[in-house]
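Section 5.1 Outputs to date
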Amino acid sequence: MVALSETRVEASADVAIDPRGVNSGVAPVTYGHGERPPRGDYAQARSDYTCEQDWAAYSAADHELYRRLYERQAAQLRGLACDQFIDAIGQLGSPAQIPRFDDLSERLRRATGWEVVAVPGLIPEEAFFSLLSQRRFPVTGWIRKPHEFDYVVEPDVFHDLFGHVPLLFNPMFADYMQAYGAGGLKASRLESCEHLARLYWYTVEFGLIDTPSGLRAYGAGILSSAGELRHSVTSREPQRLGFDLERIMRTRYRIDSYQSTYFVIDSFKQLFDATAPDFKPIYERVARLQELSADERLPSDRAF
């Protein structure tokens, strides 16, 4: 739900930005390329950017669009998505309608102690990290328009629910996400959010995992995409490299195309263990090293 990119966009003249990540009733500054501020009604959100889902406001067309999106993606999962994701997707409930967040949170709390909370749209890093550290995953309240069926610029309720929430039922991945949030709060005070954003991008959003059956996707940006799911796992075009924390923190990425590089983990435990050390010396080392382009290859890379 936080905007992760490498280029800051200036806020509109009428958008007041609170650098502490406290909602002031207007859309926050975002990252990436865009011609308008994020959509969503920030005036109705609380100071931590959470708000009511307002499930009754969804129209029959909204629910039908969610069903079509869900069924298209679910039909592609076998052989491309990791087993942990496939095993948990049913926890979202019936694809016939957009889930009620309260009902979904009840199931999540029983499984891993997490809950989902509604937010009006993209939120600042500080607010995002804070929610994750409390085991509260922010989910956009609105759903894309029919003409955005194949691609939506900002994460909507379908991307956040279908892409992110199933793996929060996995205890190891759930712990990783909380650790990431706690690390993010520290990174924001060390002015190292860009390095941590790259870790999120190449794991939570666009990560692959090596399994006995071959490479599988676990990243939400892949799992909720009609085209990138197959591209990431089967295409000959991208490079797939072994997970390397500092290598990832040095690597830029693209937000306007399929990824040219994917990083592959051996297990979710590897991800959790990677967040255990104090990142401060890692940030300091990485800051002294040259940044890498999204498609760069190093002699030390382990290629799949």
